[in-house]
Amino acid sequence: MTPNARFLSDRQICELLDEGRSTLYRSRKDGVFVQSVKIGPRATRTPDYEVAAIMQARIAGKTDEEIRNLVVELMAARRSAA
Fold first, then answer.
1. pLDDT tens digits along 27-41
2. How many Cα neighbours within 13 Å face the side chain of 58?
3. Are 71 and 31 in contact (CB under 8 A)?
4. 25 closest CA partner among 10, 15, 38
5. For the whole prediction, is pTM greater than 0.85?
6. How many CB atoms lie within 10 A of CB 33?
7. Which pLDDT belongs to residue 67?
8. Phi, psi dihedral angles at 58 (to 5 degrees)
């Protein structure tokens, strides 16, 4: 986790990626985007550095399989940080 990390809502992520929510949900289901973090009884968010890592991988031309591996690594890092 980075010291200045922020949590982004699905709406903010969709604005950054210029995608709709259904596309974001499909990406999560397909394993090419990280799952959100439950931060309250009715709220979920995603760490901004994880979104940035996935965006950088897309810009670098990584394949979906490489991005799935990145997502697995990011999710594992969450578990080990807890």
1. 999 999 999 999 999
2. 11
3. yes
4. 10
5. yes
6. 24
7. 98
8. -65, -45
Q: Rounded to whole angstroms, how far apart are CA atoms 76 and 9?
A: 21
Contact 13, 24 (CB under 8 A): yes
Q: Which residues does 39 contact at the CB level (< 8 Å), separation at least 6?
A: 7, 45
Using DSSP, state whether 42 is helix, strand or coil.
coil
CB atoms near residue 81 (< 10 Å):
7
Q: Which amino acid is at 25?
A: Y
Mean pLDDT of the residues in the chain: 94
Cα–Cα dist 42/23, whole Å: 21
Residues 45 and 13: their CA atoms lie apart, in Å, by 9
Which residue bears the tokens 């986790």?
1
pLDDT of 2 over the 70 cut: no
Rounded distance between C-alpha atoms, residue 12 and residue 53, angstroms: 16
CB 47 within 8 A of CB 7: yes
